[in-house]
Design goal:
Elements: H1 17-20, H2 23-30, H3 35-42, H4 46-58, E1 59-62, H5 76-87, E2 91-93, H6 96-107, H7 110-113, E3 118-121, H8 131-146, E4 154-157, H9 162-172, H10 176-179, E5 184-187, E6 204-209, E7 217-218, E8 232-237, H11 242-247, E9 249-250, E10 262-269, H12 278-286, H13 298-304, E11 312-319, H14 329-343, E12 352-356, H15 366-381, E13 389-393, H16 410-425, H17 437-440, E14 443-446, H18 449-453, H19 471-483, H20 496-511, E15 513-514, E16 530-531, H21 537-542, H22 569-591, E17 597-600, E18 603-608, E19 613-616, H23 625-628, H24 632-636
Parallel strand pairs: 1-2, 1-3, 3-4, 5-6, 6-8, 7-9, 8-10, 10-11, 11-12, 12-13, 13-14, 14-17
Antiparallel strand pairs: 15-16, 17-18, 18-19
């Protein structure tokens, strides 16, 4: 993919088309050439060598052992040819040995190395006992290599070791040669903003500060006057009190606010128990110098940011005290946001809104979830007049659904969950003439759908996780019952299916991530690779060898190290989940009529124009024929499994 050889210094006749064409014309033509052909062109002549190499190395994106849409049948070369330069405007590296070749190439050729302007090392999963250490060393070596760069505009690495990685990254950003062209800066201490100098091209700033280091920031004076030219701002602290950073900002004039394109706030009122010392919490809440009580406060944002200018808004916000009915700042926060949006034409510039909560060890009961979170959030969302992308992610511990304390029947629990979902989504229909979201939304992401809505099931059967009546789904349950141990959570409930399927749901939710390039030409899941997460999740968590006191297994992991076989149990369960989601997908597409992209609990869907329906693009919606062989007779006879089954909206 990457070649260290240089071509001969070929001279051209004066009337050669290569000589006559201005370089910018050839560069325009190269926009339609894939990275493999760029390598070939670079070997033809010296003139094309320079232009091809500039294009080939300008943007590098690494996502190791990526998963591609099913239509490519795992053919990474064909995927890269059709999508790398065409949609991501980047050269792609998806294999570890190609990454090592790339590193050797740029290390041994200074002129090629200095061509790299954008470098993204996206989320990758390490396989094998030492692969994590190898990835960590490789990332460190890449960081050391780029310390010598003079032309780098952007660098992103999803570190295997996040704690050490952040330290490496902030140290890296303190180098003069690196800073001079970087436009995005992460700082963990205030002094890092000016050490050694503020990047002259700074447009994106990520403040991840210690709460004890917060200080007043006067935007009329150096160095904070640089904030006035920012495009995006992210505010977070070690105690997740991002609003306290905004509180410290003093504007140049009472009539002026920051005009940002993107704003990200991390803020949690009252940390979870065990996440923060009580003494620290009390000090933060009562410190008269900060004038901050820790509550979610919309007025702080509105007083500092011109919200009518925003195109992207990401809020990771929560209030732990509303779980005990001690505080309603979350509700007030979004009510004020909704009132503001209504008064300002629905914030027409805002096209992308993402909201996420913090993980909590205790769940809200359904009525608390509805009253305290979903209703105020929905009331805000429906005021937005031009929203095309929406993400709602309520991160919750998935295995809480084993709780049997409510004592309700499965039927009533299903209806409760169904009404909870409908109450939230139907909220968008109220005053639908003022809620264009139903027609304008094209991308909807619900990463934590099942574990947000499936509560306290006393039995797996008849639940919303068991609605499909096909023999493939029944065979998946039969395999789980026969081959996987049951780790009991509740002595009164058989949790075999919850545990095994719950593990896959957890993997899909936590590990799956689409690699979206820095320069977006489109927003189309089918054009990007996706990190697939840990392979052989069930095997790793449920199977032990006979030497370890277990009964062993027949998974034959060594024959399929990346877990890509269609007969891999993890993949079969993912197909099972796709089947259970079918009625919910239909419900969402009827409501949001122009939905082209949908991600629900880590499974990505894209509208098939021929079928005019959403279909999964990384996961099979059909079971392998060889998997169905054992029940083919029942299928041929038109029989269905005995059940019992759950249902969604009567289906």
């Amino acid at each position: 993919m990457f070649n260290t050889k240089t071509c001969k210094n070929t001279s051209h006749p004066p009337d050669s088309i290569i000589t006559i064409f201005p370089p910018f014309i050839i560069q325009k033509i190269l926009d339609y050439v894939d990275q493999f052909d760029l390598v070939s062109l670079s070997l033809t002549c010296s003139h094309l060598y320079v232009l091809s190499m500039e294009k080939l190395y300008k943007r590098i994106t690494i996502i190791l052992d990526a998963e591609f849409p099913l239509k490519y049948n795992g053919d990474s070369r064909e995927y890269i040819r059709q999508n790398g330069m065409a949609y991501m405007d980047s050269s792609l590296i998806v294999k570890y040995h190609n990454l090592l070749c790339f590193i050797n190439t740029v290390r041994n050729n200074e002129s090629i190395f200095q061509l790299i302007k954008y470098f993204v090392f996206d989320k990758s999963y390490e396989t094998g006992p030492r692969c994590g250490e190898m990835l960590k060393l490789t990332q460190s070596s890449i960081m050391d290599m780029f310390r010598k760069s003079d032309n780098l505009n952007f660098l992103h690495i999803s570190f295997v070791d996040f704690t050490e990685g952040i330290g490496q990254f902030t140290d890296f950003l303190s180098l003069s040669n690196v800073r001079k062209k970087m436009f995005k800066l992460l700082i963990t201490e205030p002094c890092q903003l000016t050490t050694p100098f503020i990047p002259p091209n700074l447009t994106n700033l990520f403040l991840m500060l210690d709460d004890n280091d917060l200080q007043d920031m006067d935007l009329s004076m150096y160095p904070y006057d640089s904030f006035n030219s920012l495009f995006t701002l992210t505010c977070s602290t070690t105690k997740q009190m991002g609003l306290s950073i905004l509180q410290k900002i003093h504007l140049s004039s009472p009539n002026m606010k920051l005009k940002l394109k993107g704003l990200t706030i991390f803020h949690r009122h009252k940390a979870c128990e065990g996440m923060m010392d009580d003494d620290d919490d009390e000090e933060l809440e009562q410190d008269p110098q900060t004038n901050i009580d820790g509550k979610l406060n919309f007025d702080i944002i509105e007083s500092k940011i011109d919200l009518t200018y925003l195109t992207h808004l990401y809020l990771k916000v929560d209030c732990n005290e509303h779980r005990d009915n001690m505080c309603n700042c979350y509700e007030i926060f979004f009510k004020k946001f909704a009132d503001f949006a209504t008064q300002h034409d629905g914030l027409p510039n805002l096209i992308n809104f993402e909201v996420e909560s913090y993980p909590n060890m205790e769940w809200l009961r359904p009525h608390q979830q509805m009253e305290n979170i979903l209703t105020p959030l929905g009331s805000f969302i429906k005021t937005l007049s031009n929203l095309s992308r929406l993400t709602i992610d309520f991160s919750t511990p998935g295995f809480k659904m084993f709780d049997n304390s409510l004592g309700l029947s499965n039927y009533l629990l299903n209806k409760l969950n169904e009404h909870l979902m409908e109450a939230f989504f139907l909220n968008f229909f109220i005053n639908s003439d003022k809620s264009p979201l139903l027609k304008k939304l094209t991308t909807l992401q619900l990463p934590d759908f099942f574990t947000s809505f499936v509560y306290y099931k006393p039995d797996f059967l008849e639940s919303l996780l068991h609605t499909c009546k096909c023999w493939g789904c029944q065979r998946v349950l039969d395999v789980l019952e026969a081959d996987f141990f049951d780790k009991l959570i509740d002595e009164t409930v058989d949790t075999t299916y919850y545990m095994s399927i719950g593990y896959i749901l957890g993997k899909l939710q936590a590990d799956r991530e689409v690699c979206i390039p820095i320069k977006e030409k489109t927003f189309n899941y089918g054009k990007y690779p996706v990190n697939k997460g840990q392979p052989h999740t069930l095997h790793s968590n449920f199977h032990t060898t006979k030497e370890e006191g277990g009964r062993g297994c027949n998974c034959h992991v060594e024959k399929d190290p990346l877990g890509i076989s269609e007969m891999n149990i993890d993949n079969l369960i993912t197909t099972y989940i796709v089947h259970q989601l079918a009625p919910i997908i239909e419900y969402l597409t009827i409501m949001f009529v122009n939905l082209d992209n949908l991600m629900i609990h880590g499974i990505y869907y894209e509208r098939n124009k021929e079928l005019n329906q959403l279909v999964p693009i990384y996961d099979s919606s059909e079971y392998p024929d060889c998997f169905l062989d054992a029940v083919q007779d029942n299928i041929d006879r038109g029989l269905t499994p005995n059940g019992p089954f759950g249902n969604f909206r009567g289906q």
